[in-house]
């Protein structure tokens, strides 16, 4: 927007967050909040992050519904495991998933989806091989986890960020 205030919403959000985290507000706290609100976006401007282009908004909405459904279902499954309502042994483990996606925004969204879904955790990504190491609370079938991540998340993310048809 301008040289002094390149990202006004980021500045306002940072200053407000600073004030909320350091309540009650004091003169020094308000001054520091303004300083943080102005300094951090200036650094962000120097980094010049590129903008993301969403190419398939319908696919994005379907992915959002899928992720919300999976989160609710995973919460129930994890609660059953923790409360001991599910019979059988609990087997945690690691699953290696070969990803075709290389788009940084898509990989970031996938990391957020997997980490925010109870029972799964993005552990490591090897950019040379494109392999993702994921920890799962319920390691019943590794091939099923690979298919789930690729079909339910990776393919729509590729359509959203890379323009590939889902």
UniProtKB/TrEMBL annotation:
Cell compartment(s), UniProt: Cell membrane
Tagged with keyword Secreted: no
Membrane topology classification: Multi-pass membrane protein
Keywords: Cell membrane, Membrane, Transmembrane, Transmembrane helix
Record field: transmembrane: 7-23, 29-47
InterPro entries attached to this UniProt entry: Cation_antiport_E
A matching Pfam family: MNHE
PANTHER family reported for this sequence: NA(+)/H(+) ANTIPORTER SUBUNIT E1 (PTHR34584), NA(+)_H(+) ANTIPORTER SUBUNIT E1 (PTHR34584:SF1)
Family: Belongs to the CPA3 antiporters (TC 2.A.63) subunit E family.
Alphabetized NCBIfam families for the sequence: PRK08965.1-4
This protein's name: Na(+)/H(+) antiporter subunit E
Species: Methylobacterium organophilum
């Amino acid at each position: 927007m301008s040289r002094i205030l390149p990202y006004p919403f980021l500045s306002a959000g940072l200053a407000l967050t600073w004030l909320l985290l350091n309540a009650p507000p004091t003169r020094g706290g308000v001054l520091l909040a303004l300083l943080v609100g102005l300094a951090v976006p200036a650094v962000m401007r120097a980094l010049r992050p590129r903008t993301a282009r969403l190419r398939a908004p319908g696919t994005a909405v379907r992915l959002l519904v899928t992720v919300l459904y999976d989160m609710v279902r995973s919460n129930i499954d994890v609660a059953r495991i923790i409360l001991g309502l599910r019979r059988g042994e609990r087997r945690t483990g690691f699953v290696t998933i070969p990803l075709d996606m290389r788009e940084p925004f898509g990989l970031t969204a996938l990391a957020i989806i997997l980490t925010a879904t109870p029972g799964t955790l993005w552990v490591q990504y090897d950019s040379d091989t494109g392999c993702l190491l994921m920890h799962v609370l319920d390691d019943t079938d590794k091939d099923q986890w690979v298919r789930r991540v690729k079909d339910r998340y990776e393919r729509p993310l590729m359509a959203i960020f890379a323009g590939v048809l889902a």
